[in-house]
Specification:
20 helices, alpha/beta, five-stranded mixed sheet, Rossmann fold
């Protein structure tokens, strides 16, 4: 009987207990122990790339409470007896920070207390230990009844590690899952900074100068730099999407994907799976999205945007709402299959997002929206990795320009029929409804219209700043079939409503005077657009005889 696939987020232990299909990533344990058996390890990868599964695998391997388990039988790590002395030899503290997502600080604080309480409950046997001191018993009690204050909370995990060492005679291992979940979700809110400060103090106390710590393993999407969480840690080893070591331990390699497809009877589906879910690069490894591959197989090999539709799209949406026109335009170019060279940094500073290209594109790469191929020094060639991510980025762009489907259809119909009044009404509705549109200059309007037309008119290649005649067109719609006509659009921004009509006339005149339609068919459509705030005016023209 063929093994079943889990896409619901089972732990490593449950996957092995229930004999679910498992792609062996056990040598991550070997990677860690062969480097050093102490210190703090931070592994950052995009969401749904196996971070939690790998963390629970480490729990299964190291945790003294699981002594005697058979979960690693047949896995690669079992062929390495040099690591046997570490197996189920340590008490383990689990801190699941993905559960502390909150919109405000008070809720965050309450959720954080609950998560710490759960960590303590896992070691409730300590209450029977003769080694437990009076203040330590009180800490348990304060957590249980919710009376624990902030200062107690900050040192709670550090104190728990001391209790465990005293009881077991062995220093514990701390496992922290999705350390950056709450602070990332709160980016842009008033609670962002106090959340980050408190979390930084808790983790600093637990991970820095903790004499009762054997090793810590921390997962997240990004490495947060210079902003309190890791700023004081000098014993941290960071493994990110640029790291060569352990580059195949997250995500699936091509060989693994081919084996999965063959194991489930459809090796011929490889090219389809590759187009939809390949394209990521971690270190020197080309990898596939593991969640999407497993979902693809479990859904009878019907390609869909599994990863893209599983949530966590705050990053791309937040970025598109805050970036400047130049970077917005560059991201639009990526959606048409382009690439560009940018500087990337592994550590992201939130305060620099929107102000530094390296933070913007680093965040997109770390969170799985860009493939990054190294060039020289800190420069990388970035592109959208696959069909699934492309669809997600395009949807996020459309969401920034929010309006109903009828308005979109009306715009397309008006453009195709060269209906100036229809264009005006549709564009005005879009501009009024787009609360995040930053209409600061002429280029802002160009980007809005270009975004809409690219997404809504797949039978046209929509380009900006195309060199034509004696200048560059604002927008050029090149038809992809012979039965469509080219369109040239010129944009103007005016300071008063009375200037709208003259500006559209000037736009048409500019197209003709600068011969933007040189070499184009005689039926090429000329469109002049002028904007006063969110009020558009459109004039349709044609080439002179």
């Amino acid at each position: 009987m063929r093994q079943q696939i889990d896409t619901g987020g089972l732990s490593f232990m449950e996957i092995r207990r229930k004999d679910k299909y498992y792609v062996d990533k056990s040598m991550l344990i070997g990677d860690i122990l062969s480097s050093n058996d102490s210190g703090v390890y931070l592994f950052t990868r995009p969401r749904r790339f196996g971070k939690t599964t790998n963390l629970t695998m480490l729990d299964a391997f190291f945790n003294i409470e699981y002594k005697g388990n058979r979960w690693f039988d047949g896995l690669e790590i079992s062929n390495h007896p040099e690591f046997d002395s570490y197996r189920n030899a340590f008490p383990v503290i689990n801190l699941n920070l993905k559960e502390v997502k909150a919109d405000d600080f008070d809720t965050f604080l309450g959720n954080l207390k609950e998560v710490v309480l759960e960590s303590f409950k896992m070691h409730a046997y300590l209450l029977e230990s003769p080694s437990l001191m009076r203040d330590e018993r009180k800490l348990f009690d304060d957590l249980m009844d919710g009376s624990i204050d902030k200062s107690q909370l900050i040192f709670s995990i550090k104190k728990l590690s001391k209790m465990l060492e005293r009881h077991h005679g062995v220093k514990p291992i701390i496992l922290i899952d999705e350390y950056d979940r709450a602070v990332s979700d709160s980016f842009g809110s008033e609670s962002h900074r106090p959340m980050m400060n408190l979390l930084g103090k808790i983790m600093g106390a637990a991970l820095k100068n903790n004499d009762s710590l054997q090793m810590a393993y921390v997962t997240g999407i990004m490495q947060i730099a210079k902003e309190s969480i890791f700023s004081d840690l000098n014993n941290i080893r960071v493994n990110n999407i640029f790291s060569i070591k352990s580059d195949e331990r997250f995500g699936f390699t091509e060989a693994e994907v081919k084996k999965i497809l063959a194991d489930f009877g459809h090796p011929e589906k490889f090219e389809e799976a590759k187009a939809w879910y390949d394209g990521y690069r971690f270190g020197d490894a080309e990898v596939y999205n593991p969640f999407s591959i497993m979902s693809y197989v479990s859904e009878d090999f019907k390609p869909e945007s599994f990863w893209a539709n599983s949530g966590g799209d705050w990053i791309i949406k937040t970025l598109l709402k805050s970036i400047d026109d130049q970077n917005y335009s560059r991201i639009l170019d990526l959606t048409t299959g382009g690439s560009m060279e940018v500087e990337l940094r592994p550590a992201v500073t939130y305060s620099r997002i929107g102000h530094a290209n390296s933070s913007l594109y680093s965040l997109m790469a770390m969170s799985g929206y860009l493939k990054a191929v190294p060039k020289e020094n800190d420069w990388y060639e970035v592109s959208i990795p696959n069909r699934e991510v492309l669809d997600k980025v395009r949807i996020a762009i459309s969401d920034v320009i929010a309006c109903n489907d009828t308005t979109f259809k009306n715009l397309v119909d008006a453009v195709r029929s060269r209906n100036a009044d229809g264009m005006e009404k549709a564009i005005q509705n879009i501009l009024i409804g787009g609360s995040y549109l930053n209409l600061v200059d002429e280029n802002s309007y160009i980007l809005v219209v270009m975004t809409l037309l690219r997404g809504l008119m797949p039978d046209y290649d929509v380009k900006t700043e195309v060199e034509q005649g004696n200048g560059r067109t604002d927008l050029f719609l090149r038809p992809l079939s012979s039965n469509k006509v080219p369109m040239i659009l010129e944009f103007k921004k005016v300071d008063s409503e009375k200037d709208l009509v003259p500006a559209t006339e000037e736009a048409i005149r500019q197209i003709r005077d600068k011969r933007y339609a040189l070499g184009m068919p005689s039926d090429t459509v000329l469109i002049g657009m002028a904007f006063w705030g969110k009020i558009p005016k459109v004039l349709i023209g044609s080439q002179p005889d």
